[in-house]
Amino acid sequence: MITFAYHKLRCAVAVSLEVDTMAISAFETLLINNIVEAMTKALEQAIIDGNGTGKPKGILAETPADGQTIESAAPSYSDLIKAEGALPMAYENGAVWCMSKKTFMEYVGMTDKNGQPIAKVNYGTSGKPERTLLGRTVVLCDYVASYSAALAKDTIFAFLFNFKDYVLNTNYSMGVKKYEDNDTDDQITKGIMLVDGKVVDKNSLVVVKKIEAV
């Protein structure tokens, strides 16, 4: 059984009457775009590490299946091998690595026992970087903690996951409203959304967790 609750995502921006009166139409369009962008970032953050209280439950808040938590004192080649080995064969297709850019750069210079680099950055026809680890796509994300020597114990700094196994439920699609604050005459532009989400199949989730160096 999968049960969804609802959480209100709200973003409101006040503009003084004077500015609103003098502003050109492009300013209003930019304002709405910024509200939409801010709400989208809030959703992305919740999907990755939301705690489920007042927001959707994120991927990092999910407890992985037995044997799918890899403990690591520092990014290493063996950790990647262990993570790939922990990923069930049935969930092999579609799973990607997710980590911060700083953590990915820790892997870029690593080589296997034959001296071959384990991380590669190619540039496709669009010119955009295409990052991989051992042939698996890497998605860079600011909402996963970056590895450092000072990173707290038990903090997850990388994970494997098929994002299709996360479901985001929107009960009220994002709507933008505009109204006037009678006390200040400010023009309020507000975006509202009702949303919840959670991992519906955690078997594709393999996390790499920081431990203390021995």
- Total strands: the figure is 10
What summary fits the major beta sheet? 7 strands, mixed
The count of helical stretches stands at 4
Arithmetic mean of pLDDT: 89
3D shape: elongated
**If strands are numbered along the chain, what order do they take across the biggest sheet?**
2-10-7-3-6-5-4
Q: How widely separated are the two ends?
A: 42 Å
- How large a portion of the residues is in β-strands, by DSSP E? 25-35%
Low-confidence stretches: none
Strand pairing plus helix content: what structural class? Answer: alpha+beta
Q: What portion of residues is helical?
A: 10-25%
Gyration radius, in Å: 21 Å
Order of helices and strands, N to C? EHHEHEHEEEEEEE
Explain how this protein is built.
By secondary structure, this protein is of the alpha+beta class. The protein is built from four helices and ten strands. The chain has helices spanning 17-22, 25-49, 77-86, 101-108, and strands at residues 7-15, 69-72, 96-99, 119-123, 129-133, 136-140, 156-161, 166-180, 187-199, 206-210. The strands form two sheets. Strands 2-10-7-3-6-5-4 form a seven-stranded mixed beta sheet, with helices on one face. The chain starts with 6 loop residues before the first strand and ends with a strand.
Question: Can you give me a brief rundown of this structure?
Answer:
The chain is α+β, with helices and mostly antiparallel strands and 214 residues long.
Task: List the topology elements.
Layout: E1 7-15, H1 17-22, H2 25-49, E2 69-72, H3 77-86, E3 96-99, H4 101-108, E4 119-123, E5 129-133, E6 136-140, E7 156-161, E8 166-180, E9 187-199, E10 206-210
Parallel strand pairs: 2-10, 3-6
Antiparallel strand pairs: 1-9, 3-7, 4-5, 5-6, 7-10, 8-9
